[in-house]
Give the backbone structure.
Amino acid sequence: MSTMNSHVILLVGAGPAGMAVAASLAKAGHEIIILNRDIKFGGLAEYGIFPAKLKLRGGLKKQYWELLERPNVHYFGNVSIGNGKDLTVDEVRNLGASAVVFSIGAQGTKAIGVEGDSAKGVFHAKDVVYHFNRLPGFGDCPFEMGKHVAIIGAGDVMVDIAHWLIRYKKIDRVTAIVRRGPAERKYNPKEIRMVCANMDVPGITTEVGRIKDRLAAVGQNADEVLKGLTDEFTKCEPKVSETKMGFKFLASPKRILVDGNNRVRGLEMEDNKLEPKGTDTAAVGLKQYYEFPCDSVVFAVGDRVDETVGLPYKGGMFVTNPSKTSNDPDDSLFQAYDETTGEILAGVFLAGWARKASEGLVGIAKRDGDWCAEVVSRYLATRQPGNQSKVVLDKLKTILKSRKSHPVDVQSLRALEAAEKAHKNATDCIGEFKYASNQEMIGMIERGKT
Ligand SMILES: Cc1cc2nc3c(=O)[nH]c(=O)nc-3n(C[C@H](O)[C@H](O)[C@H](O)COP(=O)(O)OP(=O)(O)OC[C@H]3O[C@@H](n4cnc5c(N)ncnc54)[C@H](O)[C@@H]3O)c2cc1C
């Protein structure tokens, strides 16, 4: 029940950003209704972060359970928002809440748009990560990796995929394809410990030697750069496979080469040089091409938001208000904005990766959620409390029933968790049992009710 000064807030997306918004506004006494595409809460904390990071994932899960068990928080898992989904954006806005926050992450994939990227053996990193974390729709599909996988990218996600390929798939070779040089690598040195036991150091030494003149041209000493790279190969996790991992630097894939069955057989690569760009460097193509043999390719080049949801969208991002405010945090950065009308979408806010795709770790997403809650609170302070939560909840339930949706509440999630824990069949890298399809989860929940 709403108290005198409390508002009803609808929150779409129960990842780290959304859960931070919910925690802050629930603590302030507002009624929070959470709609989440996945049956389970957590977003990438459940389906992105490497499964072996039990401490991080366990800590987050505990916090999220505590939040969801508050009487003023109402959870509806398995409810997707978007055109042709359980509810549209407009329907959510018309449910009668005082504000709506979209914290739906960045569900679109970025590709670098090269010829052949629909060939068999080409994957997007997030799909692979969703697969090994058993997100329904991905966990139950085969992801057939070959023996030599090229991963395009030099960030933490590249390392996570290499980790899975090396420690669990035990393939022959993994090569990270990096547009710039070793000095411009983006991954966290701690993350490389997961895979450094498998580094092909002689191969990496040869590779850095191959590009030494191009490094020297921007004032980088190849020996020092190599030392900086390989010095991080310490405290390596014990080796469990014979997979060799290497790098191809100053390399941009231009085309995916396929065999007669449209299966990857290699990459056509362009050699790059580095050019100074302010205090940083930029990669510039040299128009010199070569073939790089491999049998699978994974693009780990970042994400973009899902433009089909129905929020104003431009260039990979949902649009926010271009008119800055003097508040800190600046309200405009969190306000959804319609460029066609030139107006803010009143009471509609964005947080986390939905606001800035691929921006940082869980801590950053949480901070973004905290900031968004501040902005929403400022907005609520200008408004009279609206509907009681029962009014909004009844309207929502009526629509979901008419759509034959299967929302999942917290009680059902607890039952699901107990059933998964009782399973003895923990498989490969997950180390815990997870139902891989919504059908199995809903089936289990329904059986428990009868
Ligand atoms: C591969 C990978 C590994 C990572 N590893 C780490 C790590 O080790 N440590 C770390 O700190 N951070 C890690 N991160 C970063 C971290 O996962 C993100 O910072 C964080 O999850 C972003 O939070 P978010 O809430 O904005 O989005 P998300 O976590 O993506 O959550 C989005 C939520 O919205 C829901 N949703 C999506 N679309 C809809 C829709 N249309 N309708 C309704 N609901 C919807 C989803 O079900 C999901 O629950 C990793 C990220 C990736 C991709």
The two ends are 29 Å apart (CA to CA). The pocket of flavin-adenine dinucleotide is lined by residues 12-18, 35-38, 43-45, 48-50, 53, 56, 80-82, 103-105, 107, 126, 129, 157, 160, 309, 352-354, 360-362, 364-365 (CB under 6 Å). Residues 8-107+304-408 form a domain with the Rossmann fold fold (CATH 3.40.50.720). The first strand starts at residue 8 and ends at 12.
